[in-house]
Structures are given as structure tokens and as C-alpha cells.
User: Fold these one by one.
Assistant:
Number 1:
Amino acid sequence: MAYEIALGTFHGDWYAAADIYRNWAAKQPFTSRKLAQRSDIPKWLLQPLVGVTFPMRGQADWDPPAAVNPEYTPATNALPYMDKLAKAFNTPLLPIVFNWEHSGPWVQPEAFPPVGGEAAMKKFMKIAKDKGWHPVLYGNGINWVVGQRNTGYNGMEHYKTHGGDSAIARSWNGTLMGGAEGGWRKLYPTCVYTQPARKMILGMTQGMAKLGPEVIQQFDQGVGAVHCYATDHGHPPVPGPWMSEAFASLLKLDNEAARSQNPNAVVSCEGAPPEVYLQEFQFWDARIGGGGSLNCALFAYIYHEYMPAHSGAYLNSVNDEALRASVARAIVKGYMLNFTLRDKGQIEFDWNHIWDRAIPDQQAILDWSKRATHFRNGVARDFLVYGQMQQPFTITGVPTRDYGYGPEPLIQSETWKAPDGRFGVAMANYSDNKRGLRLELPGQGTKNIVIHIDDESETRSVTLPYVVDMQLPSRSLGLVEIK
Ligand SMILES: [Zn+2]
């Protein structure tokens, strides 16, 4: 190893472990600039914004025959639905176009021209940008996709005539990695050290840039090189530092390709990026926006001050309350909201299910999302947009419910520290009942605290430590701020 490793023990939970790590990370070169100092992060990304994802064909990634959705194809057909949503959220949109690729959902590099034609896609991008929105296209990372069951696509001829096997990462016994049969797509992870792989990936980004989106997410499905044992690629035939060197040089070129048509284009990635690339991406797609691993928002805890995120496409919602819970979790953890759409521009419970499920109560989720986004960018802005998550202050008295990830409180909350040192506790009661809670504020001395509930505020002069007994109405947002 070319670097030192420290091993030790500690007392406490994941927050305590993350604090130890964050203290180290804050001294590293990749944390040299926080959000406010990052000139590559456009202002719009730190303003009210909601992501809206719609599939041009098919209802999910995998459902054959991937029939075209005339409501969203050409993409300009989606605009009237987007208009309604922008009005309901009272924010600009981050429209994310899914299943646009010519040969089938998530096929690269044979993705062009897009579904609905190049001219219509360019027109959609232009109109969306003219409305003050920020349209997004996703690529497929470092993968070479050679089959898609939805459309019956077989890309082997293109693959063979463009370097194919010579671009793919090899396992220890020399066989090609990937290529599994039976799934909805067949793909090979490329070795980013090889020229055919780099050409394929950069060509995909270049092609997307020409369509005129404002955001490009080429590095979908994770950021970084995969290990490769090939003896004829030119790198050492084992995993090693060459992987990050090769990926860093590819990322530099890819960002140039993404900005080849629009120097202000923004680059995002799926999932938390390796921290060494923290300053190379402008935001990240947290992917699992509703639960599961988001319940431990480790990356956001350590790095939210440096890079924003939206909550992703997998809301994991089983009913209306769980859908509102996904909004509550995302908001108190500092994420922008994102939803996927089913037919007629309607918000669905979750991405990647066919549209035979019940339709969520649209009015309810639009209203809750609008108010949550207003909260994030209003009284809670210094905490949830620019702040640093903290070990939580103690909250008691909140009942729990289980949506499939274990019992969770019906009032989601996190404790934050604003850049000016103020502490704040953000709370979201997404349930159908008014609920009481007790919040314990630590510290000492006389302080002003401000209790915000929706748009009402009350200031108290208190001596810390202090206990706040609060009543949060059904579907309300609260913030307790220590001035
Ligand atoms: Zn290789």
C-alpha cells in the first residue's frame, strides 16, 4: 500500500464513527471548497428545485415490449404535464428523461438518435431551459450494453466492429467480466484503461451533449473503474492505483465532452461518488430516496456541505403515507426531492414497477412536496442546503411505523449546524395525526431559540439545557433553531 492505514476502536453509533471520519476528511484536498465556494455549482442548483422523471417508452427498466408512451414521446409531449407539476410544486423542475435510448432503455453506445427523433429532443431541451428548468439525460456509466430484452436489441455486431472484447475488464482467470444472460439487459463492464472503452464512453457523453440537456449523468450505476486482470491492456495485470489514475483522466475528458456544447452544463452521478471526485461532480443522485440505506445517510452526513443531492428514483413506497414518509426522510436529510411519473403525468409510488398499482393521492403528495421544498429553501435553508448534519439531539414521544425497513418514527428529524454555527433541528410530521414530541436541547447559558412550525414562528429566551414540548400538526414541518 502506498498510504497509511489507521485502525482503532470507538464508543458510539454510526454518527460517532462518521464524526471521526469527517474530522479526517475535512483536512483532505477534496474538501477544499464547500458549496458556497464552488464556482462550478450554479445558483439554480441551490434554489428551490424538484426532480421529475418520465419514461419515453416502457413503464420500468425491464418491461417488454417497451411500448412508446405517446404522452412522453416525442419528449415535447411531456411539457404540458411538466407545466402542471412545476406550478403545483411552485418550483422550477429538473426533468429527467428516462428510456430515451434508440435501441432500448439503458442501451449504450447505440443510443442515438433518441426516441422521438433528434430534432424533437433538442426542441424539448430548449423549451425546458427557456422555462428556467434544467433537463437531464442519463448514460450508462462504463458499461457496454449488447442486449435489451424489452426491444429485442442485439448489439453484438456494433460491439465486435468497435473494439468489443478488447475493451472489457477481465477476471482473474482471463474471462470477460459481465455478459450474464437472462436479465433485461446484457452488458459488459469496460476497462477504462483501454482506448476502445474510453472512446465508447466519451462518444455517449458527446452524443448526449449534442441533444442540449443542462445536466448529464454519464456515470450512472456508480463512479470509478472496475478491477481488471488483463495481461494485454497495458496496465499491471492486477487491481491497483492505475484504476483511479485511469478513471480520473477519463473523468476529466468526459466532463469536457459534457461541456462541449454548453460550458455551463452540470455533471451528476448515480450514488455517492468516491470522495476523491467530490469536486468533479456538481450533484449526485442518491438513488434510494425512500428508505433502506437512506435511513443511514452516511455520505450526506460527511459531505453534504460540499455537494448537494436529490433523493433518487427508488422511493420504496408502499402506500400514500409511505410516499409522504419518503419526502420527509429526504427533506430532513438535506436532499432535493425527485419523483418518477407513470401515465398522464402522475407521480407513482416507486420507479421500476409496471403501472398496475394504485395511483397515489396526487393532490396530497403535490401539496406535501410543495410545502417541504418551501421549508427546505425557506427557514431551514442555512441548515438543509448549506449545513452540516450533526449527531441528533434527543427526541422522545414519537411513535413508529414499519414500511419494510424496520420501525421508523412518524416524525422524521435530523439535527444540523449552519455555516455560522447555529444549531437547528428539522422535523417533518408526515402522518395523518397531530403529534407531540419532546426535544432536548443540550448546551449551557442563556440563548434565544426560535420554534418554527410551517409558516409560524415563536422566539423564547431560555437557559440551556432546555426541553421543548411541541405539537406538530398532521403533515407539517418544524424547525427549532438555537440562535
Ligand atoms: Zn484492463
Number 2:
Amino acid sequence: MLKTSKISLILSSLIFLYSCSEEKPAPGTGTPRAKKQDTREISGKAPEPAAGREKPVSPVKPALDRDYLMGKFEPSKHPDFVSVKAPYTDRQGMMLRRETFEAFREMWKAAKKEGVELNIKSSTRNFQQQKAIWDSKWKKYAKEKPGARERALKILEYSAMPGASRHHWGTDVDLNDLNNTSMESGGKYRKVYDWLAAHAHEYGFCQPYTAGRTAGYKEEKWHWSYTPLSQGYTDRFRELITDEDFSGFSGSSSATEIKVVKNYVLGINEKCR
Ligand SMILES: [Zn+2]
């Protein structure tokens, strides 16, 4: 009797597991909600095996489709995102991918033990939020930079085009103060930066926008990326997204001329690759 009920328990667990996996989004889709559209987009842009490669590029995994990479989803409705609250941030509405947050929490604790208080000032921003930042700067620089290309380049000193921000991915955070000088000698957060530069890599974090790169955004001492995830996302971005994919915001047509993918998305610190 006992044996029979054990067997039936195992059987029903198996059936349950099977039906759970049926519920999951198909490869190539992000959230189940966006399944139809994502599948079509992926199949329309199916990655071809690159010349000289033995294997085709890795199959598209959930959460690594084009919409996800370009921030066209709602993090609060995404199953892999969690809310981040005090003491890790003093801001409202912060969200990160669960793995990023777990690693950040360990880093936060270690920093705290050494008297360094890490504070998240910005985390995940989706396409719409990045568009709001971009469009307001587009207006701000209208007089100073009347030409579309020059104006886009001015904004790109510190802000990504909507669709091209690492903040879309749930892997990147801005810490303490969005200001290089405050993290340098004599600055309020110098100790924070020095600690990050020495220890962030132990927790998987890397500074993508360092000084001395030949392309991309200017140095950002406050921006840190969780590379166990973001390295793969960077690779996927290169495989799936082209400069022609940017649209839906002011000056988006300058993306091709500026070569946003090559110069900005991929113009990062080599150590973060
Ligand atoms: Zn940032």
C-alpha cells in the first residue's frame, strides 16, 4: 500500500514537472506574454552560422531575445527580476535580475564590513525609461548641437540610445554618485571607488566604461556590470542586433552613421568581455 502511494506520488510529480516545462516560454521568447511576437522576430532574424565556425551560434535562450536585449519588456512583470530595496538602495522602484542582486548583496556585505557603503542609484531601465532620458537630452542640446549626428554624439558621451543600454539587461548598476570627480582623490566617494576597483571582480562585477578606451561612452566610475550574465548578453547583442534596429526615438536614424553597436555597445573595457 505504502509502495503504491509512493509510486503514484512520484508519477504525479513527474506529470507536474512535465506540465510546468510545457508552460515555459519556448526558446527564443522572453516573457510568456510576449511569446508570439518574439518568436516571429527571432525566426525573422534567425542567426546564421558565421563563416568558418563549425557550429551554428548557440540556440536562443529565454530572456536573450531581441526584445529583451533592447529593453522592450517590463522588468516588474519578468519572472527573473527582483525588487531591490534598502539598505542596498535609497531609491524607489529599483529592479535587477535575481542573480545580479544576489551577487550584489554579497558584495555589499563585504564592503560594509570594511566600512564602505554601496548604494544603488540606478539599476534596470527599460526602453521607455531610456527613451525619456534620451528625448529630454535631445531637446536640451537642440540649440548647442543643431545637427542630428552631433547632437546624438553629445548625448552619447554619458547616455545610451534607447535599445542600446546595458541597464536594459538587469545586470548593471550605477553606484553612489554619477560623478567621476566624487570618486577620485579628495572626493566624497573615493573610498567606494577604490574598494570596488580592488574587490568588485571577486563578486563578478566589472567597470565597463573605464578611462583610455578608444570608443564608446566616457569614463563612468559609478557604473558596474555583473559579468557572469552580461558577457553572454553582450555576445548575444552582437549576434542579434544591428544599427538598423534602432528606432522610435528622436534622432534614431543617426545610429547607423555612428555605428552604435560597434562603437558603444561593444566599446567596453576588455576585462568585462
Ligand atoms: Zn550606468
Number 3:
Amino acid sequence: MEAKMKTKQSRNRMTIDRLKYYRHLGGGAIECIKSRLSKKPKPLCFSLMVTSKCNCNCDFCFWKHNSDKEDMPLEEIKRIIKEAGELGYLDSILWGGEPLLREDFAEICKASQEAGLYTKIATNGWFLETNPDFAKYTDLSFISLDAIGKAHDDIRHLEGICDRVMSGIEYHKIHSPKMRIYICCTVSAQTDFGQIKEVAEYCRDADILLYFTVNKSNQLLEEAQNVKDTELETDQLSEIFVKIKELKKQGYPIRNSYYFMDYIIAKKNYYECHWPQIATVIYSNGEMLQCYDRKPFIDVKNRPLKEVIEDPVFVETVNRCKDCKLACVGNYALDASGLWKLEWSAIKSLMEIAIT
Ligand code: SF4
Ligand code: SF4
């Protein structure tokens, strides 16, 4: 079935506010060039896990084995975010665990917006209506929905979460008209294409956007066996993305880039990764972890962020990423690495996402 044409009233139409995306993309490309020339990484995405605690218990969760770590207090988080803005980071992504478990989460979002960062959050959606003030200070929300109805509840091991996600989205469509809403749908062995298509239909009908994240970790961590158990094989992933690409062409509001989808469809298993040079990922206790083995290597707690990102340990660790063979596709690493290398197909794909 053809996707419905967007009307002029679509909440996803182009607006002046959306020009922030161009600043983000253009600024990102310039920062990548500067970083490359100086060999000193100047990351532009600020990614902060605000809590490791969560009310779901997903089988594919990468983080649940670390939920005993102590979260940083609000004042420390605000200090680090302010410094990120001063250092020229362009955007933030605030996540967890479940970030809305923090009663002070709106304050964290406010600090991010006041620091001049394009502010994004990622949530499982359970508390959208009971802790809603974050939306006053948030440009974009990623809300998890992997299937429709009980199937989603089963994946997240939380009865009623699908209904709460949908109700919360309707609430924010009314009360937070400027906030972009993305469904974040995890493609794993726990869903089939029929269920994925239902999610795409829901997003089209609800006039919200859709991003597929891929549950594929090439890491062989003992603690991540649960992730491995829910992964699709490369051939299966490729088949599903052929169909997802077709849905995007039909006009479903899918925002994964063609660059990303074509990589998966072609069953590629290597690219030169530059993600850690672009994104600074900080965990809820203030440590940064090496992405390839999740071991802590430096701490931002009680230490100026500028000092941390100029520390030789930080510089050497993130510059080593280009030799990493893990080829993660589960986050933005692939798209961002294409942007870093100024590959036209990546830039074109990301520009299409920005304007549509
Ligand atoms: S909602 Fe996210 S953080 Fe919580 S258990 Fe699921 S994957 Fe993990
Ligand atoms: S491929 Fe990139 S994001 Fe993945 S572990 Fe290696 S350096 Fe990190």
C-alpha cells in the first residue's frame, strides 16, 4: 500500500526551526575537517547516559549489567553540559537506562538547551505523561517501539508499555508541538518484517518519524551474550533492509540513510570507524568507556571536560578507533564515519534526512 502523502499540516514539515539541522550538519562537516587536519579530535556530539537504571528488562539490552553504577548528581551533570557547550559541541543525546526515571531530568535537558546544544533524548516512553517537562527543553525525542501491542510489551518485559508509548506520543503532539518525535525500532531476532511494517504504518498514520536501530554487536563480551542471542544473521538483516528500503521509497517516514541501509543490504562487514572522534560518550558515573570493550579509560567527574579531551590518554584512545575491526552498525557510527571521510553518498543521504 502506498504511504499517504504528507499534508501541509504535517508536524514534520520544513520550518525555520529545522534550520538547526543544517547548522548541525554543516558545522559537523567543518569540525570533522578541522579535527582531521589537526589530528586532535574535536568531538561534536555529546552523548550522556544520565542514569543506568531502567524499568524495562529487554533481552537485547547492552547496559543492564551495569545498572549498579552510581549516577552523577544534577549539579555535576549541569557543569559538564555547560562546559560541552563552551567547547563547541553541537548537539547532545541524553539517554539511559531510562532517563525519565530521574525526577530532575527536565533540569538536565534545560541545561543542555541553555548550553546551546541541539538537545535529543532517548526513552522507552513509559513516563512520557508522568514526567513530561523535559519536552520544554528538547528538540527531538527517540521513543522505543519495536512492534505493536503485546509483542512490544513482551520484548520490553513490561506489560502495557506499548499503550503508554502511544498515549504519551499523542500527549506530546498536543503539548510539545515543536519537539520532533522519532520512533526508535530495534531490528532483532525478536521481530519479523510484518511487525516492522506495522510500526511503519503506525508512524505514518501518527505523523511521526521512524528510525531503525540494528541489534548487531560484533563484540565478544561475555556480559553481552544476551545481545548476541537476539541478533539476526547478516543474510536475514540484509533481506529485512531490502524491504525497509522499499518502504522508505514508498514514502513511509523512515529516517535511516540510504548510506546505512545499502551497507547492510550489501552484507558488508567492515568500514573505517571514526565514531569516537566525533562523539564523546559519558556513562552515568562519569566514566568514558572504550567502545570496543566497554572498559573505562578516563573519568570526567570532578575534572574539566576541556582537560579530559586534551588528555593524551583520550586523544590516543579515540584516534585508535580507525583501526577497530568491529564495524558497529547499531548506532550512528557508520553514518558519522562517512561524514568524517566526507563521502558524498553519506553527506547526500544525511542531507536528505535533514530536509525531509
Ligand atoms: S529500555 Fe533500553 S536501557 Fe532499558 S532495558 Fe531496554 S534496552 Fe536497556
Ligand atoms: S566500530 Fe567504531 S563504534 Fe564500534 S567499537 Fe569500533 S571504534 Fe567503537
Number 4:
Amino acid sequence: MEQLCPRCHEQQVAKSSTSNVTRQAGLVGLLIARSVSSYNCPACGKIPLAEFPEEFQSGVKKKRLFSILGAVGVFALVIVLLFVRELM
Ligand SMILES: [Zn+2]
């Protein structure tokens, strides 16, 4: 997703990468890191999500929702598979 910086309107913002610490925290840590990660402009630095246009914000929120739903879905699937295995 490419988005121009809301401050200078010249540079494209990039999502700040998650640190090694959050990666080691596993899936939940990654999800938390994702939900709080901010965007960086090469010229202006960190830009909070609130400064972006409404359209971009809702797109990011939708992405987050889907990533959380996906994680929950995989988790539920694993539980179901384990449960089915127990019954067989
Ligand atoms: Zn900028």
C-alpha cells in the first residue's frame, strides 16, 4: 500500500519494521506490534496514523482486522484438528 506523506506530500511513507524483540514474542506479539506500528516518512520521520486521510486509515484498519481474524481462524482450526484427532 503506497501512501504519500500527509505532511510534506512529496515522500512515500514506509511502515516501520517490527523489532527482533516483538518477533521473538511470537504471533501474538507480532499482532500487537502490527496494531501499534507507525509509518515513517524519509523526510519527516514518524507519522501517526491519525494524520493520514480517512480513506487510508480505514484501509489500514481493515487490513489489521483481517490479519487478526486470520490468526484467530488458524488458531481455531488447529484446536478443531486436535479435537477431531482425539475423537478418532
Ligand atoms: Zn513527509
